[in-house]
Amino acid sequence: MTKNAPVRTSISPSPKQLAAIKSLLFVLALLPFARIVWLIVRQVPVEPVEFVTHGTGDWTLYLLCATLAVTPLRRLTGWNWLIRMRRMLGLYVFFYALMHFLTFLWADHNFDVGAMWKDVLKRPFITVGFIAFVLLLPLAATSTNAMIKRLGRRWAQLHRLIYVVAPLAILHYWWMKAGKHNFEQPIVWGTVVALLLGLRLYWSWSRSRSPATSRSVS
Q: Where does the chain cross the membrane (predicted)?
């Protein structure tokens, strides 16, 4: 006779509490951009373009990791309400990535799309960053309730592109830092992304093994 596995109780905030949490998350995710704008307006950074480029790029990566962390946290804690935060985090990933791209397009190429395209094809770290940004476009465009309903199961399949975007973002960050031989942060965030994606692979492998295990036991 086997013992039953312990049941994890799920903590669910009330609708008002959930709305407050989402509002707080919205403000917190916007604060880094507000700080960047404030410092630029006050002419604090010595190299304003570099400051904006690095700031928006860094926060794209931070929020990407936060988005990927939602599912593992939900599974490990039983807090199913966390899934309600994922869409907002994902849209903020796109927002910061868009600001990062526009800074590159404006500062480096003065909105000359032809010159930008030549740069994309010439420099590998820009190439992978551009690919990651392009892959984010359909994810942002299909993040409405109407598109989720319209696409059905295909929506989940499409949004698995985030598992491609994350490694590309790390590679972009790695190659960008390689020019200055500064690998400390790329290693840290690469490890975080590898862990978050590795957990998904492990859980997927466990699910695929469970039917076979059940049959062998019976």
A: 21-41, 61-77, 89-106, 126-146, 158-175, 187-205
User: What tokens were used for 203?
Assistant: 């859980």
Q: How far apart are CA 184 and CA 194, in angstroms?
A: 15
Instruction: Report the residue count for the chain.
Output: 218
Sign of the C-alpha dihedral computed for residues 200, 203, 206 and 210 taken in this order: negative
Task: Give the pTM.
Answer: 0.88
Residues 79, 82, 83, 84, Cα dihedral to 10°: 130
Q: What are the tokens at 142?
A: 């299909």
Distances (CA, A) of 111 to 11, 42, 102: 49, 25, 8
pLDDT per residue as tens digits for the range 23-65: 999 999 999 999 999 999 999 988 999 999 999 999 999 999 9
Spatial distance between the Cα atoms of 57 and 96, rounded to a whole number of angstroms: 7
Q: Hey, is 173 helix, strand or coil?
A: helix
Q: Supply the angle between the helices 162-178 and 48-77 in degrees, to the nearest 10.
A: 140
Q: Do the beta carbons of residue 82 and residue 73 sit within 8 Å?
A: yes
